[in-house]
Amino acid sequence: MPKATLLYQDAEAQVDAARVDGDQLWLTLSSLEAATGWDLEPEGVCKSGICVPVPDARRSELIRDDLFNLTAFADLIQQPVAHDKKNSIWYFGPAGWEWKSRLTSRHAPDFTLPDLAGRSHSLSELQGKKVFLLFWASW
Question: What are the b/e assignments for 6-22, b being 16+ CB within 10 Å?
Answer without folding.
Answer: bebeeeebebeebbbee
